[in-house]
Amino acid sequence: MQNSATLNDVLKTFNEIFIEVLENEDIVLTYETTAADIPEWDSLNHIALVVAIEKKFGVEFTAKEIQSYKNVGEMCDGVTLKLQAKK
Amino acid sequence: MADPKTSVPDFFELKKNLKKDFSGLPRFRLAILGDSSTQFLHQAIRGYGYEVELNVEIYESDYGQTDQEIFNAQARLYTFKPDGVFLFYSTQKLLSGFYSCNENERRSFASDQVSKLRNSLAKLRQSLSCKIILSNFTEIDDGVFGNFGNKHPASFIFQLRKLNVALMELAAEERDVFINDISGLNARMGLGYSFQPKLYVNSDIVFSLEFTALVARNLVDIVLPMMGKLKKCLILDLDNTLWGGIIGDDGMENIQIGDLGIGKAYSQLQQWALQLKHRGIILAVSSKNTESIAREPFERHPDMVLRMDDISVFVANWENKADNIRYIQSILNIGFDSMVFIDDNPFERELVKKEIPGITVPDLPEDPAKYLDFLRGLNLFETASYSEEDAERTRQYREEAKRVVAQQSYSSQDEYLRSLQMTSAVKGFDSFNTPRVAQLTQRSNQFNLRTVRYTEGEIAALITAPGAYTLSFDLKDSYGDHGLIAALILKEQEGALFIDTWVMSCRVLSRGMEQFIINQIVNLAEKQKISSVIGEYLPTQKNGIVKELYPSLGFVQDNGKWMLSVQDFKSFNTYIDAE
What is the pTM assigned to this prediction? Predict the structure, then answer.
C-alpha cells in the first residue's frame, strides 16, 4: 500500500538505529525480522529502540502500538503512516 | 550529542560509553536499590561516570526488592561492599502506597514513610559504613483535590511535599546521608520532559530517557566531591561577561550594570558569584584590558556587586588567556580540574579548552539574559560538606595570592620581607596549643629535623618535665594570620641544649623564620646559662630540605651532630618582630 521506495528508506534507517542501540554491527533487518531473531532485542532494549526511532523520525507511538508490533515490517509501516499523516 | 536543554550527553551517547576502557579510572562502588525499573539508570550512571573519568561499578538489586535486600544480612548488597548506596523510590509507587491508606493513615503518611526509611537506614548502617544517597520525589499532583490539596493534610500533594522536606531534615541530621534532588531537576525541566506515560505503562519506567541521563549526572555530581573532585575557583572574564559593553571603548559610565540597558543580566550574575565566594569558592578575573581601566568599576562604579576585595587574583593584560589562567593556577596552587572559566567569547573559550586540559569552560548562551539560568542548571559547584571554615579558607587563598602578587612588585626580597611587617608570638607549650603542636610533630615530614612523633599527652607532659624547654611560634603579617607554624623541644644534656625536635610549616619558608628561631634558641640558652646548642639531622625520604639547615645557621660539625657556641653567636637580622 505504501510507496515501496519510502518504505525501503525507512527500513534502512531502522537498520542503522538497531545497529547503534543494540551495539551489534551484524544486524541485517528484513520486514519479517522479530525479536526472536536478534538476541540483544529484549524487552528493555525494545523500549530503547522505540525511543530512538521516535526521536529519529519525529513521530510518537502509543503505549498500545509499542506492545502490538509483531515484527520490523509492522513498525516500519507504523512510522510510514505517521509520517504521511503529518504531511 | 548533548541535550541542548541540559548540556548532558544524550542517553544513547552514555550507553555507548559502556564499551569504553574504564581501566585506570578511579573507582566508586555503587549499589542501586529501586522500587521501579533501574536498568536504564544503571547504564546512564556508568556511562556518565566515564564522561567525567570515574569508574562507577554498579550492583543493581532486582527492582521492588529494596526491603528484602536491606533486611537480609546475606544479601548480595552486603557482599558487594559498596562505597555508596542509592535508594531510588518513585512517586508512582509512593502514590499507590498512599491510596491503600485510610484517611487517618494518610494524615501521617509522610512521617510514617520517614520512620520506615530510618529503620532501613539503621539496618544498612549495621553492616555498611558508606554514603547513602536518597532520591526525593517528583511533585506529581494526583488531581484529586485540585488546589485545595494544598490546604488539606490528607491529600497526596500535601503529604508528598511534606515528605520531601522531611528527607532534607533527615539528611541535615545525618552526615553520610545525601539527597539526589530529582524533584529539583523536575521543577527545572517539567513533567513533560521527565515522564513518558507509555514507558511507565509498558515497562514500569518512571523517567524518560532524556531525564534518566540528567538524574545520572546529578548522582555522579554527588559522588565526585566525595572522591575529592570539586570546583574551587571561578575565573571570570569582564567585558560582556561581568558587565555589558567594552570598558576600554565605552568608558566606566556607559557599561551596562544595574539599571542601565540590560544591566540586570550582569548584576544577577555578579550576585551569584558573590554568593559562591561567601560559600568558599575563590573568584579570579582574567580579562583582555588595561589593568587600571579594568579595575575602575570594581573600585568606583556604584552599581558593581563585586569589589576588588572579592577577587583573589586579578589579571588584566593583553596576553593570551590560557597563559593568564596558568598564572592564576600558579598563584592559587590548585588543580586545573578544580577551575571554571566563564567568558562570552567563543574564541577565548575554545583556546582555553584546547590549551588547558581539565578546566571546565561552559558554552554560554548568546543572550546574556540567559547566562545565570544556564550556569545554575549545570550544577558546577557541588560539594559533599560545608563548614564555616570553607569561607575562611578562601580568605587564606586570597591572602596568599596578595602576598605573591606583592612579592612581584618589590625590587628585592629584603624590601618585600620588610613590607610584610611580620610579627611572631614566642611561647612555651600550654594547654591551648598542645593539640596543634602534636599535630605538627605528627604531620610534618619535610621541615622536620629528627622526625620524632609526639601524641598530645606526651606534648602536655613536656610542659612540666625537668630539663626540657618548649617553644612555639606563630606568624602574622600584613596580609593575615598563619597561626602556629613552628614548634621546638629542647633538652638539657651534658651541659648543652639539645634540639630534640624542630618542626615547621613549609608555608612560611624563605621569610627568615629559621633565623628568627635560632636567635630565640640562643636567647633561651643564655638565660639558662648553657654554653652550647647541639642540633642533629636524621635524614628521611622527605626531609632533604633541612639537610643543610644547621651549617647555614652557623653550626659546626661535632661527632656526627652540629654544635653552636652561644658565646660566639651573632644574632641574625630578620624582618620579624617578637610580639
Answer: 0.76
Residue A29 and residue A45 in contact, taking contact as beta carbons nearer than 8 Å: no
Instruction: Give how far B200 is from chain A: nearest CA, Å.
Output: 9
pLDDT in tens, A54-83: 999 999 999 999 988 889 999 999 999 999
Q: Amino acid identity of B456?
A: E
3-state secondary structure of B225: helix
A63 → closest Cβ in B40, B201, B208: B201
Mean pLDDT for B76-82 is 94
Least CB-CB distance to A47: which of B12, B197, B202? B202
Asked whether the predicted pLDDT for residue B392 surpasses 70, the reply is no
Sequence-separated (6 or more) residues with CB below 8 Å from residue B560: B536
Q: What is the pLDDT of residues B265-301, one digit of tens each?
A: 999 999 999 999 998 899 999 999 999 999 999 999 9
Distance from CA of B206 to the nearest CA of A (A): 13
- CATH code of the domain made up of B421-578: 3.40.630.30
Across B181-247, the runs of DSSP E, i.e. the strands, are: 233-236
- Of the candidates A41, A59, A43, the one whose C-alpha atom is nearest the C-alpha of residue A51 is A59
Task: Say yes or no for a CB contact (<8 Å) between A47 and B201.
Answer: no
CA distance B335 to B114: 40
> Chain B: nearest CA to A2, how far in angstroms?
27
Using CA coordinates, name the residue in chain A closest to B19.
Answer: A23
Residue in B227, B112, B202, B235 with CA at minimum distance from that of residue B163: B112
d(CA B571, CA B577): 13
pLDDT tens digit sequence for B15-43: 999 999 999 999 999 999 999 989 999 99
| Alpha-carbon distance B12 to nearest alpha carbon in chain A (angstroms) | 7
Kindly state the helix (H) or strand (E) to which residue B398 belongs, with its residue range: helix B388-409
Three-class secondary structure of residue B318 per DSSP: coil
CATH class of B233-401: alpha beta
Distance between CA atoms of residues B338 and B315, nearest Å: 19
Rounded distance, CA B353 to CA B558, Å? Answer: 58
- For chain B, the domains span 11-226, 233-401, 421-578
Q: Are B11-226 and B233-401 in the same CATH fold?
A: yes
- Hey, is B543 helix, strand or coil? coil
- CA atoms of B296 and B252, how far apart (whole Å): 7
Residues of B in contact with A51 (CB under 8 A): 11, 196, 199, 208-209
**The three cell numbers locating residue B316:** 588584566
Domains of chain A: 4-86 (1.10.1200.10)
Least CB–CB distance from B202: residue in A20, A48, A66:
A66
Question: Which residue is associated with the grid cell 610584610?
Answer: B420
- Nearest CB neighbour to B202, from listed A20, A48, A63: A63
Grid cell 577551575 in the structure block, residue: B339
Q: How many CB atoms lie within 10 A of CB B373?
A: 11
List pLDDT tens digits, range B53-78: 999 999 998 888 888 899 998 899 99
Report the CATH number of the B11-226 domain.
Answer: 3.40.50.1110
The grid cell for B412 is 628585592
What is the pLDDT, as a whole number, of residue A1?
46
